[in-house]
Every structure is written in structure tokens, then in C-alpha cells.
Design the sequence.
């Protein structure tokens, strides 16, 4: 469950309130009280960032002294950095849709309320959750394929024909390949573009104005995305030209139709997110790997069922449940033991356990009846692994390191 309230900092007037779950509308007096206690702390030279109730956590954050975001959510074992990061992406979602100056330099509040409605579906995606991990990890989701070098070559030709430096190929919202220009974008910009392209999966084509929160917060670009085949989408970030019609009727047929075999080979990496020939440990049920330097995230929850067909029900964890377990493990570990990718210096995450541990933890694990998890932080990589409960606890460390080695040394995995 969650409530998100966005208010004008100077007047306390709510711009909108979004609700996650089957919850009643948050009463205006409650919003006023939450904003009031935050203002009271600020007037007394204190910074109120978060508070706990019996069943929820309340987090406040002010943006550029103009907007105040208040998030009320179930604690769920997450550290403050994840709530803070969530509100950053909510703010970025509003900037992506209506622009930085339009959002903050308000002359007509009622008009701003109408304009912020355009960002509701994107904000709801962040609140309700998405298959993409980018908003949580601050790293763009990628998928590894054996055809990546060929795909990059085709993308470069596609971008050159469209007279832009920014082109990307997605498989189910995950980046399969991109031009150097696209990879040069900040993590926030890359993640927001992935969300926007994956936002309407049934659409065959889109042409929308988009502001880049970091690179171009006040000048919109055009985001053109087209579905080449089912589950495979290409995107361009460009100016006034080319038109969507030109891209659909000229560029796609001339460039992509001759490489459909490559496209279908790329799709073989779904849903594992890794090349078919890459074999990992048989007891590994899923993993998440985040690179803090490149801000890329590779994850898989569908590595296949246990090899033993007579495995106990506890061994048969569905992919959706594997994802939930791994993300919960990630949220409880990052911020309390490991630094978050959004804070390289760890300053915003030095709360909870990290402030009391005299050294930097690099490994941790948990054991439950239905699974076992192991996390390690090695160089720039953070790896979170999920194993079947029959896996010996003493072997979790060696299996996790062998998984990291397999993923980082494979020629087709670039994370």
C-alpha cells in the first residue's frame, strides 16, 4: 500500500495524490498535518526526512524549494534510500512529461494540476511496480544476446539514416543494444526512456515529446519507438526530423527487414535474459547483477525448473515469486549493508546498519524454508543470487562467485 502526495512548498496546495492498493482517499486534513509537521521541523532548523508509524513509513522530500513530495508506504523492510530514490524518479517522471521550468515556475496552479495529469500513468507505473528494475536499482535493465555486435552495427546504420546519435533496441523493455550516444545518457535519463518505451506494450509505434531530466530538462526531444516484431522494439531520440511516417515506411523496411534473422536470434535470450548457451549453476533459481560504474542491471528469474522433475513443492518457486524474493532481498541489503548505485559516496545510504558497522560489508546471506539468498559486492558489481533450499549453505558463497565469474567473463554479457 502507498500514498503519494505532491504539494506546492510555498502554499501547501496539493497538486495531486496517487494511491497504490485498495485504499480510501487520503483526507486533506491528514495531508495538511503531514506537511505541517515537516514545515515545523524546517522552521526549527531541523530536517525531517522520514518517520515510522505502527504499519507504515512516511518520507518527505523537497525539490528545488518548490515541490514537496510525501510518500506513505508499508515499510516492507526497505531502507530509506529506496524511498528517497523512488521519489526522485517520481519527480523525474513529471519532468520527463511536462518539463522542469513548467513544473516549478508556476503561474497558474490549476493549469499545472491539469498538466501533471499527463504524468499519472508513468507515476502509477513507478508506484505499482514494473517488470523493469531500473527505478529501484538506478541502473538501466539490459538483456544479453549473442547477436549484440551485429545488432549494434544495424542500430548505428539506423541512427545515421535518421540523423541522430541516439538509437536503442529493446527486448521486452530491456536494452539489447544501443548506440554510444544512448549509452552516454545519465542513468536517470536512460531509465526514464526505457519506462516510456515499455509503457504501451500493445502499441506498434509511438512519437512523443520527452524531456530528459538530466540532459535536457527544458527542451523536449522526440522519442520515436516502433515494434519491429513482437517483443522487439527500436527507439530513436531525435529532433523535428525524420517524421514518424518516414521512419515507418522508409527507414525500418530498408534497414531492419533485411536483419529479421538477427532479431529472432536475439529473442532467444528471452526470458532468461542471457544467451541460451550460457549455463549457470543447476540450483540457481534467479539472480540480479548491478554494475555501479556502468549503471546497467542484468536479471533473470526464469532460468528453468529444477533438473529433478520429482522435486518437492518447496523447490518449485514460480518466476514471479523469485522476482519478489530477490527484490525484497535487494531492498533489505542495499542501503543497510551495500551502497546504492545512486550514491557513489554512500552519503545518503549511511543509515541503519551501515552507520554502525566499522567496515564495509561485502557479503551477506539469508536462509528460509523455500529458498536461500546470497549477496556479494565485488569491485563494481553487486550480485544477488537465489538458490533452492536444498543447496548446502556452505556452498552459497562459492556458487555465487562462480556465477559472477560466468556472467562477467562471457563475451556476450556486457554489464
Sequence:
Amino acid at each position: 500500500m502507498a500514498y503519494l502526495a505532491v504539494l506546492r512548498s510555498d502554499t501547501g496546495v496539493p497538486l495531486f495524490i496517487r494511491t497504490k492498493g485498495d485504499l480510501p482517499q487520503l483526507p486533506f486534513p491528514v495531508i495538511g498535518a503531514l506537511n505541517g509537521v515537516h514545515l515545523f521541523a524546517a522552521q526549527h532548523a531541523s530536517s525531517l526526512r522520514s518517520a515510522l508509524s505502527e504499519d507504515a513509513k512516511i518520507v518527505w522530500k523537497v525539490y528545488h524549494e518548490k515541490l514537496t513530495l510525501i510518500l506513505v508506504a508499508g515499510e516492507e523492510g526497505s531502507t530509506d534510500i529506496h524511498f528517497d530514490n523512488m521519489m526522485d524518479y517520481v519527480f523525474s517522471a513529471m519532468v520527463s512529461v511536462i518539463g522542469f521550468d513548467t513544473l516549478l515556475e508556476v503561474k497558474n496552479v490549476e493549469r499545472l494540476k491539469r498538466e501533471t495529469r499527463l504524468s499519472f500513468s508513468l507515476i502509477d507505473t513507478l508506484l505499482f511496480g514494473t517488470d523493469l528494475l531500473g527505478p529501484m536499482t538506478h541502473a538501466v535493465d539490459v538483456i544479453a544476446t549473442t547477436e549484440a555486435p551485429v545488432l549494434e552495427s544495424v542500430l548505428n546504420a539506423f541512427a545515421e539514416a535518421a540523423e541522430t546519435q541516439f538509437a536503442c533496441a529493446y527486448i521486452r523493455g530491456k536494452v539489447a543494444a544501443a548506440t554510444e550516444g544512448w549509452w552516454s545518457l545519465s542513468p536517470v535519463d536512460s531509465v526514464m526512456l526505457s519506462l516510456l518505451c515499455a509503457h504501451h506494450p500493445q502499441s506498434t509505434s509511438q512519437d512523443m515529446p520527452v524531456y530528459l531530466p538530466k540532459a535536457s530538462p527544458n527542451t523536449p526531444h522526440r522519442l520515436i519507438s516502433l515494434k519491429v516484431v513482437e517483443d522487439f522494439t527500436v527507439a530513436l531520440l531525435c529532433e523535428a526530423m525524420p517524421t514518424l511516417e518516414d521512419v515507418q515506411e522508409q527507414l525500418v523496411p530498408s534497414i531492419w527487414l533485411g536483419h529479421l534473422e538477427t532479431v529472432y536470434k536475439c529473442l532467444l535470450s528471452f526470458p532468461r535474459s542471457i544467451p541460451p548457451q550460457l549455463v549457470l549453476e543447476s540450483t540457481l533459481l534467479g539472480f540480479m547483477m548491478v554494475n555501479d560504474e556502468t549503471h546497467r542491471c542484468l536479471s533473470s528469474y526464469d532460468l528453468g525448473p529444477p533438473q529433478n522433475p520429482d522435486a518437492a513443492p518447496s523447490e518449485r518457486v514460480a518466476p514471479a515469486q523469485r522476482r519478489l524474493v530477490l527484490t525484497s532481498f535487494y531492498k533489505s541489503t542495499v542501503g543497510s549493508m551495500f551502497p546504492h548505485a545512486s550514491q557513489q559516496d554512500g552519503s545518503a545510504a549511511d543509515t541503519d546498519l551501515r552507520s554502525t558497522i566499522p567496515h564495509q560489508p561485502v557479503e551477506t546471506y539469508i536462509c528460509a524454508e523455500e529458498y536461500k539468498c546470497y549477496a556479494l559486492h565485488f569491485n563494481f558489481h553487486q550480485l544477488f543470487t537465489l538458490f533452492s533450499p536444498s543447496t548446502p549453505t556452505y556452498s552459497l558463497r562459492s556458487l555465487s562467485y562462480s556465477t559472477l565469474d560466468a556472467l562477467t567473463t562471457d563475451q556476450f554479457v556486457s554489464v
In short: Confidence is low (pLDDT under 50) at residues 345-350.
